[in-house]
Automatic annotation (TrEMBL):
The modification 4-aspartylphosphate is found at residue 54. InterPro entries: CheY-like_superfamily, NreC/VraR/RcsB-like_REC, Sig_transdc_resp-reg_C-effctor, Sig_transdc_resp-reg_receiver, Tscrpt_reg_LuxR_C, WalR-like. CDD domains: LuxR_C_like, REC_NarL-like. The keyword Nucleus does not apply. The lineage of its organism: Bacteria, Bacillati, Actinomycetota, Actinomycetes, Micrococcales. One of its GO terms (biological process) is regulation of DNA-templated transcription. Residues 3-119 form the Response regulatory domain. Residues 138-203 form the HTH luxR-type domain. Gene3D superfamilies: 3.40.50.2300. One of its GO terms (molecular function) is DNA binding. Transmembrane segments: none annotated. It comes from Microcella pacifica. This is Response regulator transcription factor. Keywords: DNA-binding, Phosphoprotein, Transcription, Transcription regulation. Pfam families: GerE, Response_reg.
Length: 205
């Protein structure tokens, strides 16, 4: 018997998942959680085999709750079930220790199969999620910015013009422009705003 805890802050969605799983042979829903904190508390108290975890919940997010559960009870597996399929959400869940990532729009049989797979120690990914991860793995690693390029971009983020950056760093304006053009090329962008935004997203600034 696979013992499951269902964590989702939407009561109707949670009830639907519970009803679906309880109708399956060999699966028992042992509890429900209304948010991330509740999921952690109930998981550690009930010790289910698996937690079906939503990502976006008030307070503690699904990936944060997953990380806490896996740290305290690594034998409990987590299957993320969400409407979000952004790279950031997928990677955050996987890095937190989730063994599966399925979309709520997936067919019922895919969810049931995912629960059984994760409970058996396997990985369960929606086809679209798997395709995203494969594509991401095939992408070449972005070229690293040099210390000077990072310094120039940081000043761009502060709102300084090329001339002002040159004065601050004792560089010619043309040199500043060259550093920026190389930075744009490495980041795959074409303007200052996107360069700063992307650098922040990647933790470069």
């Amino acid at each position: 018997m696979i013992r499951v805890l269902v964590a989702d802050d939407h009561a109707v969605v949670r009830a639907g998942i519970v009803s679906l799983l309880e109708a399956e042979d060999g699966i028992e829903v042992v509890g429900e959680a209304v948010d991330g904190e509740d999921a952690v508390g109930r998981a550690l108290a009930l010790r289910p085999d698996l937690v079906v975890m939503d990502v976006r919940m008030p307070g503690l997010t699904g990936d944060q709750a997953t990380a806490r559960i896996r740290e305290s009870a690594p034998e409990i597996r987590v299957l993320v079930l969400t409407t979000y399929e952004s790279d950031a959400s997928i990677l955050a869940a996987i890095e937190a220790g989730a063994s599966g990532y399925l979309l709520k729009a997936a067919p019922a049989e895919e969810l049931v199969a995912g629960v059984r797979s994760v409970a058996a120690g396997e990985v369960a990914l929606s086809p679209s999620i798997a395709a995203q991860l494969v594509t991401r793995m095939r992408e070449p690693a972005p070229a690293a910015l040099t210390p000077r390029e990072t310094e120039v971009l940081r000043l761009v983020a502060e709102g300084l013009s090329n001339r002002e950056i040159g004065e601050r760093l004792f560089l010619g304006e043309a040199t500043v422009k060259t550093h920026l053009l190389r930075t744009f090329e490495k980041l795959g962008v074409s303007d200052r705003t996107r360069a700063v935004t992307l650098a922040m997203e990647r933790g470069l600034l």
